[in-house]
Give the backbone structure.
Amino acid sequence: MTRRRTGLAVVCLLIGVGIVLSVPHRVWQPTVESPNYWEGHTGVLTTLVLQVVFGSCLVAAGFALGFADVARYLPSTGVRLSGLTVLVGSLIWYSPETVPVIGETTGEIYLVRAGVFALLVVGVGGVLARYPPSRRLGRYGGGVLAGGFSLLAGANLLRWSLRTVEPQTGALSYPPLGVTAAGTLAVIVGSVLLGAELRSRDDAPRWLWPLFTLSGVLTVPLGVAPLLQYNEAIGLYCLAMAVVGAHLLVK
């Protein structure tokens, strides 16, 4: 990876993360003088939603520029470890009984889910290290997919942070929804691009590329169309990643 691309990736990540993390402060600030501010000014949140979507796109771009090149230096033991971590994380999300046990409150559940998405990023790194993409399409696909999981983790962290803002109002779910939208779309695009790259590799199992492609495509009707009710789509994707994790663990 060239210094120029490394610098661009770092700049995108830093600016994107900074923009998204500024949202809780911008939501909290008006409530200092008027605790009921957001009950009558929900339209103002539109600018915040656009802000977090823009910041989220920068985060995905940063991952796309540098993630695949970094992942290829993961040692063979690291590939197996990534398989184990993504397998554990996927099963934690997929079991409806597990998350409430680990996190008893809603805020704690958001933190657990954010950790699961972080483990899925590790799984994508394991796939790229085990089957290094030879074309730019595959490198960007893996990076965008990892960025999408990172954004979904960020959306859960944003929900957790905004729950501390008083008063609690349903309107405060809009900024995290913007991150969720960008993250879900990144998961779709990254999955299709990575699946196309894996199809051209002779050393990759034949079932791996359709698994990524189909799980990504199914995220469209399940995750984007019905008003971004994405839990079902991500639950399905976590099940697919559990299969990938088992493959990396035993390969």
About this structure: The two ends are 27 Å apart (CA to CA).
